[in-house]
Amino acid sequence: MAHGSHAAVEASTRRTFAVISHPDAGKSTLTEALLLHAQVIGEAGATHGKAGRRATVSDWMDMERARGISISSSALQFSHGGALLNLVDTPGHADFSEDTYRVLTAVDCAVMLLDAAKGMETQTMKLFEVCRARRIPIITVVNKWDRPGLEALELLDEIQVRTGMRPTPLTWPVGIAGDFRGVVDRATGDFIRFTRTAGGSTLAAQERLSPEQALAEVGPDWTTAQEEHELLSADDYDHDQDSFLAQDSTPVLFTAAALNFGVGQLLDVLERLAPSPSPRPDTQGRVRELDAPFSAQVFKVQAGMDRAHRDRLAFARVCSGSFERGEVVTHARTRRGFATKYVHSVMGRGRETLDTAHPGDIIGLVNAGDLRAGDTLHTGPAVSFPPIPPFAPEHFRVASPRDPSRCKQFLRGIDQLDQEGVIQVLRSERRPGNAPILAAVGPMQFEVAAHRMESEFSCPVLLENLPYTLALATTAADAPVVELRQGVEVAARSDGVLLALFADEWQVKWVRRDHPEVLLEAIGPGLPPGTAPRQ
Ligand code: G4P
Q1: Is 146 helix (H, G, I), strand (E, B) or coil?
Q2: Residues 504, 469: contact at Cβ < 8 Å?
Q3: How many A from CA of 160 to the centre of ligand 1?
Q4: pTM of the predicted model, to two decimals?
Q5: Ligand 1 center–CA 199 separation, angstroms
Q6: Residue whose CA is at the smallest distance from ligand 1 atom 11
Q7: pLDDT tens digit string along 60-85?
Q8: Torsion of CA 245, 28, 181, 231, to 10 degrees
């Protein structure tokens, strides 16, 4: 395994990012447009699997295929200018799941994609919160500017109010939403004019005009854009790299991904402004330098991608050193060797064998039965990166085997899914037979769990809905007091954390009022119990 003399140099060319958005804001369309611009694909429509389009890159599971949605994560690597961009795909369905969060532990930057007509939506906010908790810098993209939408200045206000970040537009639209002529390049003051191509599936033509030419050719729309651009500068809405990296500000771009407008600008911004991988602290707080021997952290384990082989594919982000296929790395949790003969770069269903990878790159490890999200792999001096803390679940179901004679398979299956992080498993003595409570961030996780129980463990399950919507950490000493309140239940998660489950905020308020001394602590994205509460 290479000791990473070149690792830091390689890392400096990497930009590892994810796109976060509410469903339908245009994430798949933008992904295609990015690939089109980076000349990975010749025509848009190659990766996106909605009805009428060609096969999706990530329809691994039957369920995904049936629904035409993407549950799994995949990573796409492509170059732009002098940079190698790693786009880590977040699951594209409406339902928020822990996988989405875990993906965000593997990136250095996020592109927050908004629909120009809708602004900040629920899912955007949730994902933004995760990025904020993990201190991931955010580039904001206002998409669908070719359709009627909110005013650009109004959108800036909304971003500022909802996220607390100062929006600093790098481009400014010429023409109102619905009549997208092009953008002012705010660094130079030039006009970048976009021209539609039929169907938007090939690169849109773009030309750069001086402000004088723009005024002559565009007229009043140019003047308006120019005035707004000047107003923004006067009010200090200009880009500042330090405040962007500190998450105090967010650069903003305007696009119409479906027409490929503004997408080249986004690639330029990712290359120029997005941070490259930096050294990560380990569990002891010591930093593993980029040039140290190889280390990587698993952020997701995907099962059943290749039904013929029933394999497990673990996705890991390289944190230090350079990876070379074939050598044996150490699995930090078990101290066992892990052979990397079969390591792939992963682009949806297509797998290409990967020979080298550097910090920031995502590698797919096959036969990864022992690997779990959060695990560290390394060569050289031992290292463990901090585990990925579980999210606070919001949905709860009691699980039991449909066929009671298959109890053993049931318990094995549930245990496996728990370990893999597909679902959280809670136990409460109150439950007859100690039936496990499955807990999830989004209800889709139950479907995935049920599907796996049936297809892999031949054990169809019954899931009974529980009325809870909120989980707060408590202590063993406080649990009996908390449970005095009717309708509140305390259950132990398999990591030992005791979770008090409530139907709503009111229940929490009652308990706090009656027993102010009990510990009820929020657990949230990146916030294990004991850190600042965030709900
Ligand atoms: P998602 O992955 O975030 O869920 O969104 P997706 O890309 O699937 O886009 C959702 C819908 O928005 C799609 O329309 C897509 O064509 C449209 N869209 C995306 N970007 C733009 C844009 O810049 N301008 C306009 N006008 N529309 C955009 P659809 O009707 O659901 O699908 P389709 O029939 O167009 O494929």
Answers
A1: coil
A2: yes
A3: 25
A4: 0.85
A5: 13
A6: 24
A7: 344 344 433 333 346 778 889 999 99
A8: -20
Residues 6+ apart with CB under 8 A from 321: 1, 2, 3, 4, 7, 290, 291, 292, 293, 294, 295, 359, 379, 380
pLDDT on residue 235: 94
Residue bearing the CA closest to ligand 1, atom 14: 24
The number of C-alpha atoms within 13 Å of 44 and in the hemisphere containing its C-beta is 22
Q: What percent of the chain has pLDDT over 70?
A: 83
Which residues are registered as beta bridge partners of 415? none
What are the CA-CA distances from residue 135 to residues 109, 244, 456 (Å)?
A: 9, 11, 38
* Residue of 22, 24, 29 to mutate, ligand 1, most atoms within 8 A of C-beta: 29
Our answer on whether the CB atom of 58 is closer than 6 Å to any ligand 1 atom is no
Whole-angstrom distance, CA of residue 223 vs CA of residue 232: 14
* Tokens, residue 160: 């500022």
Cβ–ligand 1 distance for 258 under 6 Å, the answer: yes
CA proximity to 476, closest of 452, 492, 454, 463:
492
What was the pLDDT predicted at 452?
A: 87
Q: Which atom of ligand 1 is nearest to the CA of 113?
A: 3
Spatial separation of the C-alpha atoms in residues 141 and 155, rounded to whole Å? 11
Residue 27's H or E segment, with its range, is: helix 27-37
Altogether, the residues listed in the chain come to a count of 535
Q: Is the separation of the CB atoms in 34 and 266 below 8 Å? A: yes
What's the rounded Cα separation, in Å, for the pair 174 and 254?
10
Q: Are 471 and 499 in contact (CB under 8 A)?
A: yes
